[in-house]
Amino acid sequence: MKVLNTTLFALLLLTVVSCKKYLDVVPDNTLTLEDVFDTKTDAWNALAKAYNYIPRDDNTHLTFWTLGDEWLGRLDLNNNTDQLRATRIMRGLQSMTSPQLGLWSGTQGGKPLYQGIRQTDVFLANIDRVRDMQDGEKKEWKAQVKMLKAYYMFLLVQHYGPIVIPDKMATPESKPEDLFLPRSKVEDCFQYILNLINEAVPDLNERADANNKGQIDQIVAKAIKARILFFRASPFFNGNQEYFGDFFDHDGQPFFPMEYKQEKWKEALDAINEAITLAEGNGHRLYNFTRDPYSYDRSAFSVNNDNMKTLYNLRMVICDPWNEEVVWGYSNIDYYNQGELAHSTNIRLPTGYEGVINTTAFSWQWMGASYQMAERYYTKNGLPIDDDATFDKSNMYEVLTTPGLGTQEYAPLAGYMQPGAQTIRLYMNREPRFYANLGITGGYWRAHTQLIATQMFSGTAGGFTSSVSQTDYLATGIGVQKFVHPESQSGAWQRTIKYPYPLIRMADLYLMKAEAMNEFSGPSSQVYDEINKVRRRAGVPDVQAVWSDPSLCRNPGKHLTKEGLRDIILQERSIELAFEGQYFWDMIRHKRAASVFSAPIRGWTYTGTNAASFFILEDKQARRFTITDCLWPIDLNEMNTNGKLIQNPGW
């Protein structure tokens, strides 16, 4: 660890220089910690600096959300080592010489979290020096910073397994043995993090006020604690002898706990319940759109009201800023620059529409969805396409034309699909999240203050247009509009709508609760209730209703076993939290990642100019993800600096 395990001179120099750069206070030759923590303004800047180490999951090239198999970006960037870093990991290009998104040292786009932890320690050691703050306010800021330290340590455990516990801050009197530390056992790491959270929570404000949204309060802290215990109870970290039975520390003891303990799920469940109770008590709930619909959708609302309400609830849940579902959001919003997932996913406004047409600025039109993701969504019956007895999978690529405008058959499709449009059977009779989240042939894209009728064929709305850009196109022919605010336009930052990307939201907590209950005590009406909260908002039938109906379901009764319900919950999470970075970690937690993520990413032939030449499935990008990739490698420079470090297996 460069931050913790170099010479004392480098440690102190790093602290002073990093603070000087951020706070812009006095010249280097006179800067001291007393100066940095002299006034409340100084301390506020130091607090902001501590928050600045939260990973940039909003940024297309730096995000962890594109891990997994949900996304596909520009194929011509395959050889660029500094772009689409998460995709490089999924392609088997991770390296211990320069780890992609390395959080240990801050390599290849990763935040240097040990440096961030050092920043929190400096803050905690010096905040009491501030002259113009009350003791209660200092205590509350300390609690926020303790939570940040705990959160950064959890992210390190999540990515690396056993980590070095930084329980002492370096001082001029520190000995080498205090600077060069070994990795601790995973269970000890979790316990240290949880102790830090328990220490911080009582001193936090119950709820941050409107001017401090994004700061950690008790609601956020308890949700973070719930997620940490949720991971701790999961099979990857709980009795994982299969992967790590021979991964030992210097004393010959396993880093990972070898014995599976069922009661860890009960601890997770208790924490989740506590988090949900506090969040709900402060007004957090599943999001519902309550404003008037956009003018272009009024006619659809008049003939298809209930379905359109559902569509709006789902379409706006992410991009409606600071809505009631967001428990914690990433608030370090870059208002002036482009690069967010909202920009790389938004399609250009096509010719024929009013506005700034055919510009790629803030509408890159090249970060799209994989074919795998298009298949993963349910049918209208709330069942996977493989399990729905009414879904004709053998003919799902058949080209058809949607019903015409004004017909009785079209009414339930109004606002979802275009009338009289070419599409395929796979795109029909799917659940509302499919239409709210994706951009498809024959559907609609809500952006640029317009209702854009997408075809995705070459030369049509949403499709490859060589005269505009040879590189900016959706390689799979399937778009992701989940992160695009309907009012965001192209050309300049002033035309875009910014919002905090959700780090934790209520739907996640409800589905975490369902999983924890099922893992601890098996299927029950209480488990179904938690799943159904999310399903009802999504406009699909209750889980026990469809999985008990042999006329709908090919595998009736699957929800009655723990194993079957586990699969159902994980698929529910993969759909509700699609593209938000959770599916990858769910597959890691349940030791499924290596088998799921090695299949090539597939998509349609984007150069096709009509249905016959477009709807041809192709392998777009090879993927290679192994058990070794489940833990990030520690940077080789760190290994050479600190002889007490043991590298992760396989690297």
TrEMBL record:
SusD-like N-terminal domain sequence ranges: 112-227
Gene3D superfamilies to which the protein is assigned, alphabetical: 1.25.40.390
Any Pfam family hit: SusD_RagB
TM annotation in the entry: none
UniProt keyword annotation of Heme present: no
Location of the RagB/SusD domain: 325-651
Compartment(s) of residence: Cell outer membrane
Keyword terms, alphabetized: Cell outer membrane, Membrane, Signal
Main localisation: membrane
Family (UniProt): Belongs to the SusD family.
This protein's name: RagB/SusD family nutrient uptake outer membrane protein
Annotated organism of origin: Niabella pedocola
